[in-house]
Amino acid sequence: MFQLLDIIGTMAFAMSGALTAMNKKMDPFGVFIIAFVTAVGGGTLRDIMIGRTPVGWMLDLKYVYVITIGFALAIIFRKKFDRLRTSLFLFDTIGLGVFTLIGLEKGINIGLHPIICIALGTMTACFGGVIRDILCTEIPVIFRNEIYATICILGGAVFFLLKKFNLESDALYLITSLVIISVRLMAVKFKWYLPTLENK
Amino acid sequence: MFQLLDIIGTMAFAMSGALTAMNKKMDPFGVFIIAFVTAVGGGTLRDIMIGRTPVGWMLDLKYVYVITIGFALAIIFRKKFDRLRTSLFLFDTIGLGVFTLIGLEKGINIGLHPIICIALGTMTACFGGVIRDILCTEIPVIFRNEIYATICILGGAVFFLLKKFNLESDALYLITSLVIISVRLMAVKFKWYLPTLENK
Amino acid sequence: MFQLLDIIGTMAFAMSGALTAMNKKMDPFGVFIIAFVTAVGGGTLRDIMIGRTPVGWMLDLKYVYVITIGFALAIIFRKKFDRLRTSLFLFDTIGLGVFTLIGLEKGINIGLHPIICIALGTMTACFGGVIRDILCTEIPVIFRNEIYATICILGGAVFFLLKKFNLESDALYLITSLVIISVRLMAVKFKWYLPTLENK
């Protein structure tokens, strides 16, 4: 189940990356790299920072295949994405939840402090998109009033709060991902956003 | 003492990052990440490149706390920074000296060549700012005629020169940081800058 | 022989980086860093991702010296590069071939899957240029219709195909680099390029 959600999330991230790259009129190689980086960039950054090398996607070809399929689908259906927007948004939100949990888990496995684990979860879920935006020379969208990373941080906090009550692992994962997914859906539905800060 | 200077430098770097991010009208999450990256980005890059993982700030929560305080102060006093500019500049200069020394030391500890140690010192002190500028989609300011990195290189050269005379560690550190700090102050006071190179 | 080609490629990459930086009117420090990053950035990224640390150029000062010479030559001859363009292009193409092979080899040495090895070869040869462009706040040129990375992927595929026939190592290396170099020369001569993908 978790494996399946990981695949769905990876594919959604790859497709969103491919779409951004096509908006920038890149060639197929550029589109593929942006798709790849959006999908696995956050986890790669996490693995590098905690010293888990070779990084994850080099040891499990599943990711290369899933991203290649996502890339191909994005190209084939590139004129029809307006109609697919809702599905893609749902899949992307699943990715947000799953990737946060994977990041949290990697941190816990090597005994890092909960605050750092939450940082790793947020990095896993959000920093593929940051690298995507930088490679497209845009200021990362999650730094500008979209509530996105904040939801991962909230999810991580809920996770460690529930962990104190000795919930079993499965329930813990389920509740945390449901919190992340539902807050994200609400944030978009009710147009919650963070204010920008200005110093002028 | 050194610990205290490290904290002062980290906070100054975090505040300067937060101010840059607010100039770009980011939201609080973006401002926090830019503050964080400006403060620990150089050291993180260094740790990753020499294989010192998990990277430093993941093992010592002090940095997270100091950056959070710097971030909060930058937001609270964001309208009053013109008056605080001189103090912030001083603290930033202290950071430049301390971070260079920390980078030098990490390289020496694992037996790298002095030239590489100087590169690590410069990276520690200056590349947080490079990552900050890239995340704000600006060409890094230290690549454009501000004398900044050059001072770290000079400081590193002085360090290894004095080391040949078997100076004791404390004196070595003190003199190197004084050289970096005073040259930086003079560079700003007397408006020293590097010429730009053009090929047209 | 291979050593010599590695040096030629490194110098060519450093010079192309220096020229790009001078187009952006950077100061000497900025020009040096861009030269450095263009030359060793791809290999550094590869080493970090596979956990080969301290990264290559920190353990072999040859690269620092070669890049410094390339940097100095680029500055001295900066007004005369139009006449040198053909030689520089040839050297750059040698670098493309050699760096791809070095990347492939590092992946094979630690037992990674051929697909991942090809990714490492391409990363080694092409991602120094990606980092160069990002530091200059440009969308990476290899993501926009220049056939460049695609040739490395092709070269890697040829390499593993020939390897199946139990060719000896020397012949394998020679043929692969000749394929990369000649396809690159033809791509430029006959103006082969990848189409851009648009979703509008």
UniProtKB/TrEMBL annotation, chains A, B, C:
Superkingdom field: Bacteria
Keyword list, A-Z: Cell membrane, Membrane, Transmembrane, Transmembrane helix
Organism of this sequence: Flavobacterium weaverense
GO cellular component: plasma membrane
Keyword ATP-binding: no
Localization annotation: Cell membrane
InterPro entries (alphabetical): Gly_transporter (IPR005115)
Transmembrane region(s): 6-22, 29-49, 55-76, 88-104, 110-135, 147-165, 171-190
Topological category with respect to the lipid bilayer: Multi-pass membrane protein
Residues in Glycine transporter domain copies: 4-78, 90-163
Similarity comment: family membership: Belongs to the UPF0126 family.
Name of this chain's protein: Putative membrane protein YeiH
Keyword Transcription regulation: no
